[in-house]
Automatic annotation (TrEMBL):
PROSITE patterns named among the record's database cross-references: ACT, CHORISMATE_MUT_2, PREPHENATE_DEHYDR_1, PREPHENATE_DEHYDR_2, PREPHENATE_DEHYDR_3
Organism lineage: Bacteria, Pseudomonadati, Pseudomonadota, Gammaproteobacteria, Methylococcales
Organism: Methylocaldum marinum
Keyword Isomerase annotated: yes
The protein's role, per its UniProt record: Catalyzes the Claisen rearrangement of chorismate to prephenate and the decarboxylation/dehydration of prephenate to phenylpyruvate.
Record site feature (Essential for prephenate dehydratase activity), residues: 268
Protein name: Bifunctional chorismate mutase/prephenate dehydratase
Cellular component per GO, a single term: cytoplasm
């Protein structure tokens, strides 16, 4: 008797709560569309101002996401609300004019994941087979943005991406950090029958200890991308691939082992490249390319103004300049936007001591 009374009150409560949820959903739906209509009006103003190509405003998006994260009182996590609003802005922008974003393909790569994390899913994501082709697609205007990997916490920099900036006029418009989890996947149901493992060379390197320990007899074969590895594993018997979740889903593979990367905080940083500069947001980074005379103390003299003006340098990487043997260029990341007065003064001082200074872009720091 007591039990059935409890069930009745629980059912009534459930009914009541679901009615409340329905009413809130209706209000949210109305507000979402009201917001979208305002975004359409913003587009009209941009069009009237002569904008034809790119309606995207990264600095405004960064401001919206920061305000939402600051105002969030939970129980939804900061990450969750940022993700919702990222998708909401992506859909609003798609109503204005969808963005076309080139990424290192094929479908299912971590670079595609990074593109969606940065721009949301309402984009035209264009898979291209090489970093060079991504630069060319954005340079020619075929795509508005490109997303390319630039460094991994285990394996270091992707030199091809850095070298591409030596000859390109493109600017960095953003950065994306992605935690990389590698999985062993196959048509097989157990890893004991795997004779060959495909993956991108970087991913094989990131899982080297695991492979040596658990699949010492399997041949490791480097291919052009993790997604290509998954495609091959789907058609070649007794093989497996190392790739992310999306690739397993896309190619119908069983995930045999999860998170097999050697370093638990394996992270890859991606750059967003575009043709336009991004305005300041108050939480920015600036990337520079510079070269010095090849004499003692030259690099010290170049970097000294950053210390003098209190600018934090977050990274320095040297690469051959391709102008002659033992001639180097430096990729430097500093905190702040090139329009911040202190950074602008420091850059003026740096310019006096270098043989070349190219500002590759100021852009919002990656959010969570
Ligand atoms: O504020 C704008 O310029 C808009 O176009 C609106 C909006 C948004 O949905 O909030 C959409 C796309 C832009 O990239 C930035 C913001």
């Amino acid at each position: 008797m007591e039990n059935s009374k409890n069930t009745l009150t629980a059912d009534a409560s459930l009914l009541h709560l679901r009615k409340e949820i329905d009413a809130i959903d209706d209000r949210i739906l109305e507000l979402l569309n009201q917001r979208a209509r305002f975004a359409q009006q913003v587009a009209d103003i941009k069009t009237a101002g002569g904008e034809v190509d790119c309606f995207h405003r990264p600095e405004r998006e960064a401001e919206v996401l920061r305000r939402i994260a600051e105002n969030n009182r939970g129980p939804l996590s900061q990450e969750a609300v940022v993700r919702f609003f990222r998708e909401l802005m992506s859909e609003c922008l798609a109503l204005e004019k969808p963005l076309s974003v080139a990424f290192l393909g094929p479908q299912g790569t971590f670079t595609q994941q990074a593109a969606y994390k940065h721009f949301g899913h309402a984009i035209e994501a264009v898979p291209l087979p090489t970093i060079d082709e991504i630069f060319r697609a954005v340079e020619s205007g075929a795509c508005q943005y490109g997303v390319v990997p630039v460094e991994n916490s285990t394996e270091g920099v992707i030199t091809h991406t850095l070298d591409s900036f030596l000859r390109s006029f493109l600017l960095i418009a953003g950065e994306v950090g992605l935690r990389i989890h590698h999985n062993l996947m196959s048509k097989l149901n157990t890893s004991s029958e795997v004779r060959e493992v495909f993956s991108h060379q970087q991913s094989l390197a990131q899982c080297r200890r695991w492979l040596d320990r658990y699949l010492p007899k399997a041949q490791n074969t480097a291919v052009s991308s993790n997604a290509e590895a998954a495609r091959l594993a789907a058609v070649m018997p007794q093989t497996a691939a190392i790739a992310g979740d999306v690739a397993a889903e896309l190619y119908g593979l069983n995930v045999l082992e999860r998170n097999i990367e050697d370093e638990p905080d394996n992270t890859t940083r991606f750059l967003v490249i575009g043709r336009n500069s991004v305005g300041p947001t108050g939480n920015d980074k600036t990337s520079l390319l510079l070269s010095t005379r090849n004499n003692p103390g030259a690099l010290y003299a170049v970097l000294e103004p950053f210390a003098k003006y209190g600018i934090s340098m977050t990274k320095i990487e040297s690469r051959p300049s391709r102008r002659g043997a033992w001639d180097y260029v430096f990729f430097v990341d500093v905190e702040g936007h090139r329009d911040d007065p202190r950074l602008a003064e420091a850059l003026n001082a740096v310019e006096k001591n270098v043989t070349m200074l190219k500002i590759l872009g100021s852009y919002p720091r990656a959010s969570c």
